[in-house]
Amino acid sequence: MSRTPITVLALGGNAILQRNQKGTFEEQYENVRSTTAQIASLVNDGFRIVIVHGNGPQIGATVIRHELGQTMVPPLPLHACGAETQGFLGYIIQQSLRDELARLESRRAVATIITQVVVDKSDPAFKHPSKPIGPFYTKEQRDTLLRDRSDLVIEEDSGRGYRRFVPSPDPKAVVEDEAIRVLVDDEAVVIACGGGGIPVIRQGTHLQGVEAVIDKDLAAERLATSIHAESLVILTDVEGVYLDYGRPDQRLLSKISSSELEIHAQKGYFAKGSMGPKVEAAIRFLRNGGKRAVIANLGDLGGAIKGSAGTQVRN
Ligand code: ADP
Ligand code: MG
């Protein structure tokens, strides 16, 4: 059996839903299909691939469904909503990837693993919920919600209304990493750690879901490191990592060492909720034994893998 290197691909939000779209099933399926067509050709070339994807808009929509449906069925906690999005998104990715592989007459298996990611219950993030999720509320709606659930944190979000904020703790370990490794060793294409994984804490010998969300790029690093992937490829909606991003003199970093990238990060070049975690994931991956991290545009997947597109980071 061939032992081609493993690549973990982290797909950004735009791989599933573009910013101007509403979020119908058909829109999401169509976006996923164009991404999986690119991935299928890599798989057909012999690459061993694990796919991690985001779930920002989808978990927001799922929370709305649970809240509005609560006069008929009880709403589920946030970690269970995360599991629902892993199932739904895993389903459309695995169906369309299978179809594309069948078209290429490839016999590689495709499987989604519902994935839990361990976080530390004393992570300072639990004291500072920073990630807005779900719908916008009026002040009255907020007051009603807080009467029933005093544990929720609902605050003003950039002048657009009130929104629920949840903690975003640092991922420590992927619970299902061994199962994923076995599948990858057997040449299956695996979809895992969707939405950054379902956040769980260890309670003695038990695992318990918590009300939080995990950054998908940082979770992808944990998975890539633990299954000894050679490359971590983070695909998003910009060409790569820029210095002075958004200014007329912005510069794309095309090839860079992780220590140089770390110096730029310390200077605060990369925005906290967006490029920051991608750069941090790349630096951690190389520090933990990875050979190469790439941050590139979704449309440049082939070039990103070959080394000719995006920001290519090595030690
Ligand atoms: P994803 O869904 O792929 O994780 P994000 O929105 O979280 O997407 O991150 C990508 C965004 O990061 C880009 O669209 C860009 O607006 C933003 N960004 C912030 N700082 C930078 C930077 N220094 N270089 C490139 N993009 C940056
Ligand atoms: Mg992001």
What does this structure look like?
The chain is an alpha/beta fold. It has a domain at 6-117 and 178-236 and 274-307: Carbamate kinase (3-Layer(aba) Sandwich). 37% of the residues lie in helices and 23% in strands. It is built from nine helices and 17 strands. It has helices at 25-44, 56-68, 78-103, 139-148, 177-185, 216-226, 258-266, 275-287, 301-306; strands spanning 6-11, 48-53, 110-112, 116-118, 131-137, 154-156, 162-166, 173-174, 189-191, 198-203, 206-209, 231-236, 242-243, 251-252, 255-257, 292-297, 311-314. The protein has an eight-stranded mixed beta sheet with strand order 3-9-2-1-12-16-17-15, with helices on both faces. Helix 2 (56-68) packs across helix 3. The longest helix has 26 residues, at 78-103. It is globular and about 55 Å long. The chain starts with 5 loop residues before the first strand and ends with a strand. The model has no long low-confidence stretch (mean pLDDT 95). It binds adenosine-5'-diphosphate and magnesium ion (MG). Adenosine-5'-diphosphate binds next to loops.
